[in-house]
Amino acid sequence: MSSFTDEDLDNYLQNQVDLRHRQVSKSVEDVQKMIKDLTAEVSSKDARFQSIANSGVHNTSLKDQPALVTKWATLLRGRCAYNPAIQVLTPTLFLISVPLRGLMGYKQRRTRQWRYYTLSGSRLISPVREPEKVHQWLELESFVNPSQEWHDTCMTIEGDIVPAKVVNVFKEHLEASIKTCGLSNKVSMLESVGSVVRVAVETSEAQVEVELVPTVELMNYWPKRARWPRLFRRWPSAERARCIKSFGFNLLATSNYHWLLSFSRAKQVLMSNIDGDGGCRRKCYRVVRQLKEDIWCPGSKPVITAYHLQTLLFWTCEKYPCTRDWKDFKECVLRLVHKLYKCVSQHYLRHYFVRSHNLLKYTNTNELDDVAKKINNFLDNPGTYVH
Questions:
Q1: How far apart are CA 37 and CA 41, in angstroms?
Q2: Is the model more confident about 232 or about 338?
Q3: β-strands 93-99, 86-90: how paired?
Q4: Which 3 state secondary structure label does DSSP give 273?
Q5: Radius of gyration of the chain (CA)
Q6: Sign of CA dihedral 145, 146, 149, 154
Q7: Which of 103, 111, 126, 198 has the smallest count of CB within 10 Å of its CB?
């Protein structure tokens, strides 16, 4: 068996991981500028959609909460170069949340029977698939003071805000805005898969696929179904958990009927100070992510993305919360790889905030098995891959 040393890992970080990071950062910079211009143009046509410059704590609905904005800026100072709306799933696949405006004063309503419709408004007797634990319905009545524009039937059916309708309106505005902004040579619409708007963006580094998702951003509110932090956990600290929950969550328009719970801000805060005790968690994550992208699961639409790896890292931090558990670089990398192998081979990775949901539930099992074989080969001879 061929192994590797901490020096090998440091060289791998400098020669492979840092190179990829610089390339991705340049792509993010290019994409951010173009999508910012496009969403600003969309917003000028329809005020219900905001520019991505107004995402997260920059959302116009938070102008009366300066303390929350200051806290966010302090937490991420010098640690987050990306717009909080942008999630890099792979070097060539980005997810961008487009913030919505005019839905104020959210309060989670009592669970009720689900209702389903065609987009024309006809009631369906039963759903094609029952909603997952990470999905929820959204009604105008969930908001204390929704703006009048949201009562438009192009967005709602019988008081329900229908994601597919919101996406259709956004898509129409986006197509027009690409021409208006003179970006037809840089940005092109792709065929949509489900209720998602997909575009191809030419950057200075490569062509990147971007999924644009209208998003309801809910601050100072934590969903009841996300029972976090769990009892007896030692990571993160109770103080940090309270801070994270104050930044709330998002609802993404990713399906026809259901809004998807997203905790992107919570993940950003968890990652922002993950090595505050001097550990090597982030370095381990970066090494494993590079191995995944180069060897185990490459391509623009892999079954395992950075989202899965972050979730795996958080679970590992919870199991190994002490500083001494994150001092041996080599040992920690192999620990993370072993845990990834277990999850992939068993086709099971728990959602970090909604623990009853399996993130790999609908993933192609043959592809997962293929990834598991590659990871197992790595574990047999890790030194042949890290050099």
A1: 6
A2: 338
A3: antiparallel
A4: coil
A5: 21
A6: negative
A7: 126
What's the mean per-residue pLDDT of the chain? 89
Q: Band the pLDDT of 54: cuts 50, 70, 90.
A: confident
Decide: 40 and 51 in contact? Cβ < 8 Å. yes
Distance CA 381, CA 387 (A): 12
**What letter represents residue 268's amino acid?**
Q
Place of tokens 């180069």: 294
Q: Which residues pair with 124 in a beta bridge?
A: 116
Say if residue 14's pLDDT is above 60. Answer: yes
Structure tokens at 254: 């990713």
176: left (phi over 0), alpha (psi -120 to 50) or beta: alpha
Give me the helix-helix angle, 264-272 and 238-246, nearest 10°: 140
> What are 155's two structure tokens?
């967005």
Pairing type for strands 93-99 and 207-218 reads parallel
Looking up tokens 């019988």 gives 158
Write the CA distances from 240 to 71, 271, 290, 345, 363, integer angstroms. Answer: 12, 12, 29, 33, 32
Predicted pLDDT of residue 307: 96
Distance CA(158)–CA(151), nearest Å, equals 9
